[in-house]
Amino acid sequence: TYFNFLEEEWKLKKLLFISSLLLSNLVFADIDLSQSYSGDIMAGYSGIGASTNYIRYSTNKKIEDLNFLDYKYSYIDSLNKQLVDTLENDNNEIEKIVIVNYTKFKFEKYDPNIFSILLGISNSHANKSRGGFKLNFGNGKLNYFKERDYSAQFFYNLKYTSSEFNCIAFLGKNQIKNEEIKEKSLYYGIYGKYKQNILDKYTVYFDYLEPAFFIDTTIQRYNTENKGDNKKSKINNSSIDSTLGLEGNKEFVVDNTNIKASIKTGYNREFLEKKKYKSTNKKVDSKDNIVGEVGITLTYNDFVGFNTSYQIKKSLNTSDYIDRVEIGVKFKF
Q1: Which has the closest alpha carbon to 276: 243, 240, 244?
Q2: In angstroms, rounded to a whole number, what is the distance separating the alpha carbons of residues 120 and 127?
Q3: What is the 3-class SS of 20-74, one letter each residue?
Q4: Any idea what DSSP says for residue 277?
């Protein structure tokens, strides 16, 4: 019944909330906030931060050709990519970090507001790794449905001089409803990215870029449960999506502003094209894709930062494409 679902939803909220309190208390209880104002810690190095982002997806497909899973796969992908960008630009010398974030997500008629909190701890000995979790609470509208989404991401980042590895395990619950239909979903999976700089002896012609190759892969399942007309159905949708590519980065300083420019390109493949949209009886038409991305990040005095990026994913099988624009501002206290 509807009341049973509300009870389950309330239990998930309590679980996420209590888990975050317990973990944050164990890991961050010894942070002395007064140091940030006493002059003992420089601005930008307290480990406490806040950020806001606007992310917009668009496609040349007709709106009527898009379905619920198109929106949610993009939503999950955006959360993982956003977290990886944070970790790749993270200063692991800061042992403990707490970052709150607000993101406005927009994809045609899907426009959730996302509130997040990230808690992370770095290896205090080598400063090469960081682990932690991020909680996300989303609410908005999907076509004519009201939507709520709760998710948790557990991450591990490992940095070396010439390579970097990120791993994210994610779990979430979603509910959409109108007067006639109530649908709840459970999704979970693993996202991983490995990046390796190309050795100097192979890069004599790349004076203005630091080239690297990367591979990222998302393995996920999206379980839907539909209730309508006194009927109940459960369908499992699965996806394995992977990209192999090259990227170039260049960092330089102008006055007190650190500027980082990046460019990426690669080949993307969906390996479970028959199962990705199982609940809609739709087969993936664009299983082979070319991906391109450009981005720039500016950080002033390690205190305030601005980032923007543009990504396009073009099908090799059809004329379809999907692009992504992100604009963000962050503050480190």
Answers
A1: 240
A2: 13
A3: HHHHHHHHHCCCCCCHHHHCCCCCCCCCEEEEEEEEEEEECCCHHHCCHHHHHHH
A4: B
